[in-house]
Amino acid sequence: MKRKYFLFSVTSLSIGFLITAVACSTETPKNPEPVPPRNLPYPAKPIEKSPPFPEIKKPWLEWYKQDSRIFEMLTNNDKPYLKLSTWNYKYFTFSDFYWLFPTYLVGKKFPNKSQIYHNAKNPGWFIRDWVHSPESKNNESYSKRFSLKHNWKYGKWLDETSIVWPGFDPELMVWDFSDQKSYPDYLKTISLLKNENDLKKSLRLDDEDQNKYINYFKRIHSDNWYVNNPKITISDEELLKKYMPWSDNFNFESIKSKLDFNNYDYLFAKDLYAFPYNFEGDDWNRGINIMNYDVEPESKTLKLNLAVEFDKSCNGNYCIDYSYKRGWNRLNSLLIPIKKNSIQSFNMNDWNLEIVTYR
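== Lipoprotein ==
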């Protein structure tokens, strides 16, 4: 009897479970309850997103684009000056040098000339000590520095004063304006223009400088690994077109048309070089501008306040990809009008240059 009762009980439970399951299957399923968040060991903070990188406009997308333009500018107190800007014509300069904007020097090193010595066993100059550049970005004593052009032939002057050795990039060397003393005035960083002939010579358009540049461009062109091929030839005309900034809108006549030699002479401040940092922005007339200037012929004093002007969208950041910074080379040159014949001649190294720079 006990065995029969047990079988009956199991059978009854099975039938009851089946009936219940069938009855439940007719109900609408409910959404699952949300899982409560875990308690973190520290308060959760929203992710702070970096501001979007400014839209890169043309010509920033065109790394290899070359251009040159003329701008009629005003200082902060409305004094006029003319600005010549070139992009990616790094190897062409109006002077023989790059005038280094002091931001280039911050955090860099340069040779202490008082510690230079000559090693008789190994011909050439060697550097015993290096001096750190200043942290101050507007230190006047560091606003009159320049570097040399790669592969430019500086002749006897460089042979006598050279502190570089084979394989060292001359652009990394920093020199003082006083090192230009023996150079012709028109090739110095700042020179005087009194007429059209001075302008033509300072723009390096006479036959002597044209030939000098053709030979220079040949050396530069052959340095490039992708053209260093005996099967590839390039004419002198093609070299000048490739490496010189002249165009229909940027040439001797267009620059001359912006100048008034009947009433003014001009101080020509050349080849201001602010890279490797690309603070220029995507507006063509940005870069290095004059905030104020003052020329005092009696005391032979030139006062210049220069600043890097940012594009509003960049706010001092790189405006192109970091890896392109050495390819995007802007040079600014500035023509400052002065009263006609107020200066008869100008030797940069005889003048008191009070140059203050801001970033």
